[in-house]
Protein: Heparan-sulfate 6-O-sulfotransferase
Amino acid sequence: NFYYITILRDPVSRYLSEWRHVQRGATWKASLHVCDGRSPTTEELPSCYTGDDWSGCSLKEFMDCPYNLANNRQVRMLSDLSLVGCYNLSVMPEEQRNKVLLDSAKENLKRMAFFGLTEFQRKTQYLFEKTFNMNFIAPFTQYNSTRASSVEIDEQTQKHIETLNFLDMELYDYAKDLFLQRYQYMRQKEHQEARRKRQEQRKILKAKQAHNKEQSDDNSTTDYIGNVERWR
Structure:
C-alpha cells in the first residue's frame, strides 16, 4: 500500500528558491515529464536556454521565459495533466485549462493521506504523527533563513512573481485553510480523548474508593460483632 504525501511551500519563496537552484547550474534533464504514456515534444515544451544548463541566469531572464516550468509548478505537479491534453496547449482555451488544472490539484491534495506546509513545521510534524500514529525522535525546526529569504526583491518584482504563479497562489491559500482546519480538528479530537480518559480515570477512582469504603464498613461491622460475642 502506498500513501501519497506532499509538502507545499509559499509560492514566491519556492519560485525564488528554484531560480537560485537553477542559477547554480541545476537542471531537470532527468525529468521525463511523461503524460499519457509519452514525453512532450520540443514544440510542446521548448527549453528556456541553450547549452548544458542555465547557470548564471538573472531573475529577470528566469521570469521572462514563457515556457519556464517553475511557473505554477505546485499546481502542475499535483494535477492530472491528462485532463488538459498533457503539455499540448492547443487542446483547450487557456482559461479553461487553468481552471481544470487548479480544480484537479485541489482535489488530489485533499485526497492525499497527508500534506504539510513548510511555514508550519511544528504543526506539520504534529499532523504527520497523529495521521500515521508515529513519533519523530526530534522536533521539526522552523528555518526562517533560507536561500530564498536572502533574495531581496522590490514590490513590483514580488507582484510579477505572484502573477506568474497565480495558480500556485490560489492553491496555497486553499491548502493553508484546509491544513489549519485539519490541525484544529486533530487538536480538538486530542482534547476530547484526553477529557474522556480523565473521566474514565475519575470513574475508576470513585469505584475504588466506594469499594474500599464498603470493605471498611464490613470490617467495622465484623469487628463489632466479634467483640459482642467476646464480651458475652
Observations:
- The radius of gyration is 30 Å.
- The mean pLDDT is 91.
